[in-house]
Amino acid sequence: MMDRQKGEGITVKVIIIEDEIRIREGIEKLLAKLDQELEIVGEADNGEEGLNLVRKLRPDFIITDIRMPRMDGLEMLTRMSDEGIGSKAIVLSAYSEFDYARRAMKLGITEYLLKPIAYNDFAQAIENIKQQVEKDKQEKPAQIGTIEQIFHALISGRIEIDDNVADYLQNNYQIGRDQTFAIVCCYLGPDHENVWEKTKRYFQQALSMYKGLSYTVVEAVYKNSLIIALYHYEDAGDVERWIQYQLLKHSPEKISVGWIEVKGIEKLKSGLDTLYPYMDWNISLDQEVIISYPKITNVQTSSCIYPIDLEAKAKGAVCASDWAAVSALANEFHDNFRDGKIYVPREIKESYVRFLWSILGIAKELGCMEKKDLEQQKLLGMIMNAKMREELVQASDLLLGTICSEEADTNITHLTVKRVTSLIHEFYRSGITLEEIGYKLNMTPEYLGTLFHREMGVTFSSYMKNCRINKAKELLCSTQLKLYEISERVGYSDSKYFSKVFREITGQLPNEYRRSYK
After folding, report:
1. For residue 226, which phi and psi values (nearest 5 degrees)?
2. Total number of domains constituting the chain
3. What is the pLDDT of residues 475-491, one digit of tens each?
4. Do the Cβ atoms of 182 and 230 come closer than 8 Å?
5. Are 187 and 387 in contact (CB under 8 A)?
6. Do 88 and 200 belong together in one domain?
7. 251-263 pLDDT, tens digit each
8. Terminal CA-to-CA distance of the chain, rounded, Å?
9. Residues 158, 292: one domain?
């Protein structure tokens, strides 16, 4: 290492990542003895926490163990390499297998020490790392990476612009600190992993046609988007119009496009963070236009009136197990927001939540969701995170695909029991008895009752009662019939007795149930 006078050295930032606290403390003491220019800026006891610290603090080098909970050292170093984080590393391990050393060397790790740590070996490793750090800081930072890597790190907030990076961008790409950028966010949707490469190639080919325009295209996985940074243009309005025509209207995939201008390379991340929440206005506009900020904040909207009549009809269709009607009513609900008016996207999303949750509620009440796997949190996330109308339709299809399947009776394998249930659904109003069904099927009531109970898991009388009450629920939700009229329609001549049975099964009186679902 080159000689320096005291006070002229370069401060070197270090993070220690080790799950055993005594070893961490021992490393701290060793570092304090070895060199006062070493500054410990953070500590972590697992690889996941260590990776987050490295992303935030950008140390010159790290000292990390291999075996740690939650994320081991090699996986953490691999992630750092993939993200273009250039921090050096000293790797510690109590395991001498060659495989660990070989994997570490593939990641460019030159300092690999075995526990227990020998003082001389540790001191030499620190000296080697410091030489590498100082050499990197003194040389021209061509090793910073491609401009795509720099921009990706900037928009994700993993690096800040220092003098070295600023000089590098200025000298190699004529990008100054105060450069004006147009950030174009191209939202590809949840299927973005399957289409982003094809879409990126199209964007690059199309952008090359605009003379004099400089651009960088990077992927933002966490936003399901491709981000284009445009610079060195003269007329922002002309470029925006060209982007709308060339990229939005002729894209090979369905996309939503947003636009914002920022001044200064350090504003790339904040500009994208400002624009991204407005990307869901594509749901409201539903046409091939750019979501341009701040213009979008001045859009005049109409009041979003929830279609309560469609909800009532849909719940009635679910009660009747009329899945074709449920699907048709869902399509009518989709069309309700395609009437040429512009609504606040949040209100459209809230309408979808209300509509789908009402269907989900009645389906659960009727037992349509038994043994069905539907993650309600996933469904809610699909709706509230949607940036395109197609995603709302997909959320609706997910729910309907779960409940609009064949009823539980299709699981019945015994033909005789199928015939019994069919007769119940046909003659529940008249109160058909097990004896009458047995006579029709030429079987004794006792045998038929035993067979039914074994196959269905409930007695004949319980099944009949539930069938009547389910029909009553349908009528309560989808009609204005009076209580005594509903009672008669489901086979109860005494409305008071009907109310008693209804309450036994549902925990509510019929009128209470009607109010809760209407």
Report:
1. -105, 135
2. 4
3. 888 788 899 999 999 88
4. yes
5. yes
6. no
7. 878 888 999 999 9
8. 80
9. yes
